Amino acid sequence: MPMAADDIVTLIEEALPGAVVEMRDLAGDNDHWAAKVTAPQFAGLTRVKQHKLVYDALGERMGGELHALQLTTQAPT
């Protein structure tokens, strides 16, 4: 079963307190998502390390319940 946007947001927000997560369904199938994550924890980190924090928050769901995630990350300005 595909993963709902609200569930993805909850997991990210729990792992990265203060994060702002914007979700977009790329294919209309609730299975291919684009997420823009703005989080204070990203300050001073490379893009790769920022993405790793998000993927760590999603854990084993990536590639399973969550088939595809286009990710954009940034620290607050």
Structure write-up:
Helices cover 30% and strands 26% of the residues. By secondary structure, it is of the alpha+beta class. A three-stranded mixed sheet has the order 1-2-3. β2 (32-38), α2 and β3 (68-74) form a beta-alpha-beta unit. 19% of the residues are buried.
Could you write a compact summary of the structure shown?
This protein is α+β, with helices and mostly antiparallel strands. The chain contains two helices and three strands.
Task: Explain the layout of strands and helices.
Elements: H1 5-15, E1 20-25, E2 32-38, H2 47-58, E3 68-74
Parallel strand pairs: 2-3
Antiparallel strand pairs: 1-2
Describe the main β-sheet briefly. Answer: 3 strands, mixed
Task: Determine and state the CATH class.
Answer: Alpha Beta
Secondary-structure element sequence? HEEHE
Task: Please list the strands of the largest sheet in the order they lie side by side.
Answer: 1-2-3
- DSSP summary: helix tally: 2
Distance between the termini: 36 Å
CATH arch. level architecture? 2-Layer Sandwich
| Record field, number of beta strands | 3
Radius of gyration: 12 Å
Give the uncertain stretches in residue-range form. Answer: none
Structural class: alpha+beta
Supply the number of structural domains. Answer: 1
Please name the fourth-level CATH homologous superfamily.
BolA-like
Question: What is the third-level CATH name, the topology?
Answer: GMP Synthetase, Chain A, domain 3
Calculate the mean pLDDT score and round it.
Answer: 93
Helix content: 25-40%
